[in-house]
Amino acid sequence: MSSINPFVQVAQQMLLGGAVKQNHALEHATIVLLSRKYPEVRFAGISFASGFFVFGDVPTEAIVPTANEALTLLRTTQPEMAIHERCGTNLAVAGLLTGLSSMTVAKLRRPYNSFNNVLLASTAALILARPLGLVVQRYVTTQTPNASMNVVKVTPMQLFSTPAHFVSTDNPDAAGLFS
To answer: Model-level pTM?
Structure first.
């Protein structure tokens, strides 16, 4: 299994191409719909080339119809469901911008390399990270599922004492690298 580190996930999505990006979009849309049906449950997810995990205590039989509904909505009327405000991509962008901005300011000559300026640069980076994270999701880490993608099965399990479901997908047109 791949890393849960958001930086590694972004790298995997860029390298593995369409399969991971399309599963990432479907994961977001499925979690949005599940959140509407089960508002008391907290959800999380993570995507891979072969499918995605949905973390949350919901009936297994609710996942397949919800994922299929999400797939239909993404392809037709609501492709914006692929973008989620609490996605790990946003955390990766925030971490990267904050780290780069504070390192840049720290390397400046005096008096510009003060602690106050590092804090100011980090805060500015965090403010910019929110809209930039959504843009990165839209153009880099998610993609509208193509017509060949379908939900194959859902496997319930426990991961780290958390109820989880792995949603297996089949997507023959997006199996190659950089697709």
So the answer is: 0.84
The answer to whether residues 4 and 27 touch, using CB atoms and an 8 Å cutoff, is no
> CA–CA separation, 131 vs 152, rounded Å?
34
Class of domain 6-83+142-174: alpha beta
Using only C-alpha atoms, what is the Rg of the chain?
Answer: 18
Residues 89-110: tens digit of each pLDDT: 999 999 999 999 999 998 988 8
Average per-residue pLDDT for the chain: 89
- Dihedral pair phi/psi, residue 79, rounded to 5°: -65, -20
Domains in the chain: boundaries: 6-83+142-174, 88-138
What are the tokens at 28? 């977001």
Which residues are bridge partners to 151 per DSSP?
169
Say how far apart CA 35 and CA 90 lie, in whole Å.
20
Contact 63, 54 (CB under 8 A): yes
